[in-house]
Amino acid sequence: MDPVIPVAVLSVILGAFIVLFFFGSYFRKRRSEVQSISKPELQLQSDPKTRPSKPHQPISKKSHSKPHAHASDKDQNKRHHPLDVNTLKGHGDSVTSLCFSSDGRSLATACADGVIRVFKLDDASSKSFKFLRINLPAGGHPVAVEFSDDASSVVVASQTMSGCSLYMYGEEKPKPSDGTKQQTKLPLPEIKWERHKIHDKRGVLTLSGTSATYGSADGSTIIASCSEGTDIILWHGKTGKVVGNVDTNQLKNTMAAISPNGRFIAAAAFTADVKVWEIVYSKDGSVKEVSKVMQLKGHKSAVTWLCFAPNSEQIITASKDGSIRIWNINVRYHMDEDPKTLKVFPIPLHDSKGATLHYDRLSLSPDGRILVATHGSTLQWLSVETGKVLDTAEKAHDGDITCISWAPKNIPMGDGQASLLATASIDKKVKLWAAPSLSSS
Predict the structure, then answer these.
(1) Where is this region: Disordered (predicted)?
(2) Kind and range of the H or E element at 70?
(3) Would you give per-residue pLDDT tens digits along the chain (441 residues)?
């Protein structure tokens, strides 16, 4: 027998044994793996205690339930304050200024997106508002807006790299069509006059305008532009002519306002004193001169804001000294009679540590009974008679409030009319607020 054959047979048998051993080991291993995977699955299905619902439950509560409920509560407090009437949306950036027309039916807003919007307030509770869009010349950022002689003309302060400009936009009356009954569309407002570098390279802080009716004034709109320096310029709204200017000589202005009758102009600046000038009118109704007539002394720190009473005989000031003062300026200043402090109230707003906060802005209701003040995003209504808080909206906006103004007259709302306040903010929104009840004061 060939000795090679037994060796070959032995090799085949040995190889078969090795292969059988290898595959047997492999299948046993796979079977144990399958069993180890399948048993927990069966155990999870049969024993509810081992289901992963409990470990996931606290995670669900922490990351979803509580924050969602908290966010909803905050959102509700922020958007559904009892006095919150409506929100005017559509602005593309921070709203820097707003003002009402003399009849209260139009609201103009200045926005950092370079657009002036004039909203028609036919019904304050409406779901949407029609508005007129005015695009400023390229490169300018509107910082303040004020109505001129009627609701179809506005004066805008626009800031550029080279300084601040004033533009007056007005509408032309539509020309009658040639025998056709179809109504001609109203033309868009166009620039009627413009003035550039009005305060050199300094910016404009505020615009304040009113229809001058005191003494021999002819009812024309007078507008004061307050610069961030120390100068204030008075403008004739319709023609754009400079009719007067004053210098506060107080290092840096904060704001300026004209009295509702056009008689006085008052400025809050770097110091604790408020200077008041009188606008004197000629027999023909034009401005003759602007002369300093009095100074309000009594605050111990800088005055942050001021506003006139509707009768133009009182001024309300807020100061960093933590107080509000009501002044009587209806005095015989030409006989050296000083303005008198009628009331002093502590500012009823404090931080978490109890320190008194100062007010950023003030606005007085048309009836002179409710004072509205702001600090950051907080809005407060106060009784002028008692100084007590009527209501507070701590998160009136999603950011600092930039401007506030009462409508000069009641605005239609639903089936009735209401006295409304408008607020603007860096959150790209303008809100309308109802007046609180005075019964609690």
Answers:
(1) 37-89
(2) helix 66-79
(3) 555 556 555 666 766 666 555 555 544 544 433 333 333 333 333 344 444 443 343 433 333 333 333 333 344 444 579 999 999 989 999 999 999 999 999 999 999 999 999 999 999 999 999 999 999 998 899 999 999 988 889 999 999 988 999 999 998 665 555 555 554 555 678 999 999 999 999 999 999 999 999 999 999 999 999 999 999 999 999 999 999 999 999 999 999 999 999 999 999 999 999 999 999 999 999 999 999 999 999 999 999 999 999 999 999 999 999 999 999 999 998 888 899 999 999 999 999 899 999 999 999 999 999 999 999 999 999 999 999 999 999 999 999 999 999 999 999 999 999 999 999 999 999 999 999 998 755
- d(CA 201, CA 138) in angstroms, rounded, equals 18
Cα 32 from Cα 279, distance rounded (Å): 101
Q: Which helix (H) or strand (E) is 71 found in, with range?
A: helix 66-79
Closest CA to 323 of 252, 373, 391: 373
Q: What are the strands, taking DSSP E only, across 228-352? A: 231-236, 242-247, 253-258, 264-269, 274-281, 287-296, 303-308, 314-319, 323-328, 340-346
Is residue 360 within 8 A of residue 374, CB to CB? The reply is yes
Q: Which residues, at least 6 apart from 29, have a Cβ–Cβ distance to it below 8 Å?
A: none
Longest Cα–Cα distance in the chain: 151
Neighbours of 68 (CB within 10 A): 10
pTM assigned to the model: 0.79
> How many CA atoms, within 13 angstroms, populate the side-chain half-sphere of residue 394?
8
Residue 436 vs residues 130, 346, 369, 391, 417: alpha-carbon distances, Å: 27, 20, 11, 7, 14
Q: Please calculate the CA angle 378-389-258 and round it to the nearest 5 degrees.
A: 70
Distinct helix (H) and strand (E) counts, the chain: 3, 31
Q: Which residues pair with 132 in a beta bridge?
A: 118
262: left (phi over 0), alpha (psi -120 to 50) or beta: left
Q: Taking the CB of residue 74, how many other CB atoms lie within 10 A of it?
A: 11
Length of the chain: 441
Distance of alpha carbon 358 from the chain centroid: 18
Q: Is residue 290 a contact partner of residue 309, using CB atoms and an 8 Å limit?
A: no
Number of neighbours of residue 18 by Cβ within 10 angstroms: 10
* Domains within the chain, CATH numbers bracketed: 211-355 (2.130.10.10)
